[in-house]
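Weekly modeling sync, notes
Attendees: S.R. (lead), two postdocs, one rotation student

Agenda item 3: backlog of single-chain predictions. S.R. asked that every request posted to the team notebook include the full sequence so nobody has to chase files. The rotation student volunteered to paste the first one in as an example of the format we agreed on. Action items at the bottom.

Example entry:
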Amino acid sequence: MNSDYAFLSRWRIEGTCGEVADVLGDPIALARWWPSVYLNVRELCPPDAHGLGRRVALVTKGWLPYTIKWEFEVVDSRYPHGFTIVATGDFDGRGVWTIEQDGAFVDVTYDWRLKAEKPLLKNLSFLLRPIFEANHRWAMKQGERSLRLELLRRRASSAAARAQVPPPPGPVTYSAVAIVAGAVAIGAGLAYLMIHAQRRRITKRELF
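Predicted structure, as returned to the notebook:
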């Protein structure tokens, strides 16, 4: 059963590498400026003088009705041009952020390769992979929008100007999730029927 995933996300943000790196490189602030995905972030180990070794525990979600509990450690820092994390928990993986200046804009690339360990993701990957992938794409789109808003807040010259910046999009409400939950339940039911039918075919072959 293949529960490996590979995602490549690209953002184009007006600003400088330093501005973007300062935001993305501060995981403790993720729950504030990217609240649609990051519900809770807690530092387990601070970084060293080179920005390495920082370890945090996170609770995240997308628009699907489940949360992910995981940890990551910063294993490589190339400030202001990116950094690399290694993740463990409900999924194991490696994520590489690359930040490059292109005139007045910054090209941000996130190469995220992981293996799902959470039972829901691992056991239903063969059936619900497109939904899980769409969930990740949604989360990254929220991040791009939220990053733009965070940069506007940081550039604001006064409290009044900062108050004019819209808040970042929040997490999906459970009223909206109910619809998705129904779809997931149907998918889980189909998965059970498929597995049950396969087991019956195997049993019949063993009998004859």
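Discussion: group reviewed the output briefly. Helices lie at 17-24, 30-33, 119-155, 159-163, 174-207.
Action items: rotation student to repeat for the remaining queue; S.R. to check formatting next week.
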